Amino acid sequence: MSDQMRIAVLVSGGGTNLQALIDAQAERKIKNGFLCAVVSSKEDAFALSRARKAGIPEFILARKDYPISRQYDEALIRLLDKIGVDLVVLAGFMNVLGPDFCSKYKNRIINVHPSLIPSFCGDGFYGLRVHKAALSCGVKVTGATVHFVNEVTDGGAIILQKAVEVKDSDTPESLQMRVMKEAEWELLPKAVSLFCEGRLQIEDGHVRILE
Ligand code: GRF
């Protein structure tokens, strides 16, 4: 197990994307890596129960205990140093990580965003807001994107994307659910496995997937 990549998943909420990773791991779909820690920025995140049930060490680093976001990032770096982490996965993590964190884990942080970047992304586009914006724009297709994280919100190199149909009858909630089911829960474990297998190569800000 020692040459396996150590994956830490950062969460704040329900943790359905974490569950997709847990399920993928149980089905041996994450090659060459394992979930070594779940870190929550909220004490009462349901994601923590999912981690416990799966026997993954859980940690709470409450965002509310750190008035300044830089202090939060520093505490997070200290915690992840202690745990020993090769890959950081943001799965419904509701905090923006600053430049210090991003440079420490350069090309080793992956996020899932519920739209086809560069649409409906960037500061202020999170949770249901993304789907509300897609519906008010009237797009016929939306989707999800898994990307590397850099200092620019949702601006890092794109790893995988999948399109999802928008229906006339959609509400932000129904669209969010379809995007999660059809795209996010599939793409995130896939991207994590590709990373752990060493198959993601970044060239000029673009990701190439090695065969
Ligand atoms: C998902 O749409 C994810 O893309 C976003 O937060 C939503 C809920 O995630 N960042 P989860 O159920 O906590 O994984």
Explain this structure.
The protein is an alpha/beta fold and 211 residues long. It has a single domain (5-209), classed as 3-Layer(aba) Sandwich (Rossmann fold). It has helices at residues 16-26, 47-54, 69-83, 99-104, 128-137, 172-196; strands at residues 5-11, 33-40, 58-60, 87-90, 109-113, 141-148, 158-165, 200-203, 206-209. The mean pLDDT is 96. It has six helices and nine strands. The protein is 36% helix and 24% strand. Helix 2 links the parallel strand 2 (33-40) and strand 3 (58-60). Bound molecules: 5-O-phosphono-beta-D-ribofuranosylamine (GRF). The site of 5-O-phosphono-beta-D-ribofuranosylamine has 16 residues, from helix 1, strand 5 and helix 6.
Briefly note the CATH topology name.
Rossmann fold
Instruction: Please give the domain count.
Output: 1
- Percent range of helical residues: 25-40%
Please tally the β strands and state the result. Answer: 9
Secondary structure class reads alpha/beta
User: Could you tell me the strand content as a percent range?
Assistant: 15-25%
CATH-level-4 superfamily name = Formyl transferase, N-terminal domain
Shape: globular
Top CATH class: Alpha Beta
N→C terminal distance: 24 Å
